[in-house]
Write a structure and sequence with these properties.
This protein has 278 residues and is of the alpha+beta class. The protein is built from eleven helices and six strands. Strands 3-2-1-6-5-4 form a six-stranded mixed beta sheet. Helix 1 packs antiparallel against helix 3, helix 3 packs across helix 5 and helix 3 (63-80) crosses helix 7. The longest helix is centred in the middle third of the chain and has 21 residues, at 126-146. It binds zinc ion (2 copies).
């Protein structure tokens, strides 16, 4: 199937995210041998507190584990993104003064002000700092999330906040329509969790009037759509497996469909990231 986007992406953009995903896959495979997550009762937790799992539990991620992952991630970035050589060097030269146990706690809480204070202390850009911490921890988050895959897929699984990942709390911007029955399944690009939501339904405002929910797509690329809501002007990118007859790598599909974000935003729709609470 043709995965080339109809609008060109910046040079090297897709390659970078493909190699980033490979790095994450390698780390997840390595960690599977050593990192143990004690499984929680997901349904009971979500029903009782109505908050993503990771904001309710201590996942016991050791500071040394973050240190190793961050070290490896900086090596990866050094090669894959030479343009961030300076902040990488600056971070490396201050590695010894970082309190990794505390950083894990601040990141998971999340206590953004504490993380920003560390970036200031290290004299590195805040965005870069959050990006490297987030991506270094993603392999662990993915391993934790794997334990709950079956719970999330269960017929009676219910979650009131379709755009928020019930495991890690990240905002989702992408869904797929399952080939066998058209079921809409949300995807988290941070921990790779998937959870069901309704098909003709706005994930932002809950509107379910068929005439208010439509979709936009580009000719010749009809499997990649952006569903829009006339009530709240929200949009959701979606891959329809029924059109192509096959699944895709959801992480890469999300990245390679930036043209759909542009299309929706040009027409006045929003992904409501301004309302993000986690
Ligand atoms: Zn997640
Ligand atoms: Zn809506």
């Amino acid at each position: 199937m043709d995965m080339r986007p109809p609008a060109p992406l910046p040079e090297g953009y897709l390659d970078f995210f493909q190699s980033l995903e490979s790095w994450q896959n390698e780390q997840t495979i390595k960690l599977r041998k050593t990192y143990v997550h004690t499984k929680e009762n997901l349904t009971a937790r979500l029903n009782r507190h109505r908050k993503p799992l990771l904001s309710q539990i201590n996942p016991h991620i050791d500071g040394d584990l973050l240190k190793d992952l961050l070290d490896s991630f900086l090596d990866f970035l050094d090669t894959a993104r030479p343009s961030v050589k300076d902040p990488i060097g600056q971070l490396r030269s201050n590695f010894h003064q970082l309190n990794f146990d505390h950083l894990v706690k601040s990141f998971l809480a999340p206590k953004e002000s504490e993380l920003i204070a560390v970036a200031k202390q290290l004299a590195i850009p805040e965005d870069f700092w959050i990006f490297v911490l987030d991506h270094s921890l993603r392999p662990v988050l993915r391993l934790i999330a794997e334990s709950y895959r079956e719970d999330l897929a269960a017929a009676d699984f219910h979650w009131d906040f379709p755009t928020i990942c019930p495991i890690c709390g990240a905002k989702s911007h992408f869904s797929r329509l399952r080939q066998e029955d058209g079921q809409r399944i949300m995807f988290c690009d941070r921990c790779f969790s998937e959870w069901k939501t309704r098909y003709l339904f706005c994930v932002h405002c809950g509107c379910d009037r068929p005439k208010d929910i439509t979709y936009l797509s580009i000719e010749g690329h009809d499997a990649y759509r952006v569903y829009v809501c006339q009530q709240c002007h929200g949009y959701l990118k979606t891959y329809d497996e029924r059109t192509s007859g096959q699944p895709v790598d959801m992480y890469i599909a999300n990245i390679s469909t930036i043209y759909l974000d542009m299309l929706a935003q040009e027409q006045g729709y929003t992904n409501h990231d301004e309302n993000q609470v986690t």
